[in-house]
Amino acid sequence: MKYIVSLLLVLSISACSNNNKTIKVKGSDTEVNLAVDLAENFYKVNDDFSLAISGGGSGLGIASLLNGQVDIANSSRPLNAEEDSLFKIRGIKIKTVVFAEDATAFVVQKNFPLDSLDVNTLTKVLSGEYRTWKKLIGKDIPVNIYGRQSNSGTHSFVRKKLKIEFSRDAKEMNGNAQIIEGVKMDASGIGYVGAGYILNEGKDQPIKVLKIAEKIGRPAVSPLNEQAIIQGLYYFQRPLYQFIPSTSWNKVAAFIAFEKGKAGQKIILASGYYILPN
């Protein structure tokens, strides 16, 4: 239903494309469902606005911003050095909004005989050093990795946190839903998705969310544990960004204020994301 509403919002753009209250948002698939929820509820109290929301990955959103095609780029990672340089070269001044906190969840099939991994072991699994699960579960079955394309902010985030290149055999999927579907059907699969997606869309799926320990001997923490996230205890938690060109700021200010207000914060929390104390 969310995507149908999103499509209707996109169609409304075509009817008033010259309206200064038309807001175009593109980027992170981690954020897209949340962005649609926020846009739907913002529209209920600001029906003179039109909002078009689409995903495609953080890199696509940032590229669209560079090309003047959107007003807001949703991103699950900060700008990299090349992107920052391009904005400066083109004279595009950017305002950065951090509107929520997300955690990346690592998932396996529900009956997989592991409940947790430490970061060092996870590194060996995702880099391809461990090509089978034998050392971990005693079964000589292949490690099948379900991940994202390189333009994904989540792909970049996990790669940088683990300081690895992903295994060449890792499958590159289009988004959270495809990763969950892949893992559901694969008894030796492991994938990574936004914890908010699990809480909002995947709670009833036959998957298991692994707890992650920063080091052997440290407590293993679930990305679904709100208090752990608030305390900054989960190794793979991160802020969610919105990059906005200064030329669009006046247009989007009401939407940003809605996100940061009581109604917006309630939607963010209900969608499975977190808000850290200021």
How would the blueprint of this fold be written?
Layout: H1 2-15, E1 22-27, H2 29-45, E2 50-54, H3 58-66, E3 72-75, H4 81-89, E4 94-109, E5 116-118, H5 119-127, H6 134-137, E6 144-148, H7 153-162, E7 171-173, H8 176-184, E8 189-194, H9 195-201, E9 207-209, E10 211-213, E11 220-221, H10 226-230, E12 237-245, H11 249-260, H12 262-270
Helix pairs in contact: 1-2, 2-12, 11-12
What are its keywords?
D-Maltodextrin-Binding Protein, domain 2, three-stranded mixed sheet, alpha/beta, 278 residues, 12 strands, nine-stranded mixed sheet
How would you portray this structure in words?
Helices cover 41% and strands 23% of the residues. The protein has 278 residues and is α/β, with parallel strands linked by helices. The model is unreliable at 1-18 (pLDDT under 50). The chain has helices at residues 2-15, 29-45, 58-66, 81-89, 119-127, 134-137, 153-162, 176-184, 195-201, 226-230, 249-260, 262-270, and strands at 22-27, 50-54, 72-75, 94-109, 116-118, 144-148, 171-173, 189-194, 207-209, 211-213, 220-221, 237-245. The protein contains twelve helices and twelve strands. Helix 1 (2-15) crosses helix 2 (29-45), helix 2 (29-45) packs antiparallel against helix 12 (262-270) and helix 11 (249-260) crosses helix 12. It has two domains: 2-101 and 240-270, 3-Layer(aba) Sandwich (D-Maltodextrin-Binding Protein, domain 2), CATH 3.40.190.10; 102-230, Periplasmic binding protein-like II (D-Maltodextrin-Binding Protein, domain 2). The chain is globular, with a radius of gyration of 19 Å. Helix 7 links the parallel strand 6 and strand 7 (171-173). The strands form two sheets. Strands 1, 2, 3, 4, 6, 7, 8, 9 and 12 form a nine-stranded mixed beta sheet that branches. It has a three-stranded mixed beta sheet with strand order 5-10-11.
